[in-house]
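Intended use. Records like the one below are meant for learning the mapping from a protein sequence to its folded structure. Do not use them to infer anything beyond what is encoded.
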Amino acid sequence: MEEALTALLATVAGGQRYWVRAPQKVLRPYVLLNRVTGFRDYTNSGASGYVESRVQIDVYADTYTQTKKIARDIIRIMSGYRSGAIRGIFLDQERDLPASDAGEVTSLFRTSLDFIIHHTEN
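Structure written out for the chain above:
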């Protein structure tokens, strides 16, 4: 699933998309992906191979307008997508958040998206 999402988002944010952590000297804008949950399905015979994952995608940019444009591009690409191991992708939440932790000073803007992804295990 992670490889499929990375490929699916190849055109957003100039290809700057990373799982869990961005490089220290990353160019902006960029996108961070985190798999927040992964619920595996089981039958009486064992694991079915079906998984429902929640993936949080955070867009970081120098302007609010830029984060919103990239977030809309991600929604357009991902919402309702299905192919191969990906059985369906659905937007669950969208929110604007500070780009830093409390007490930190930054000029970055951040939009956060949560997607529910139904997929089979690799």
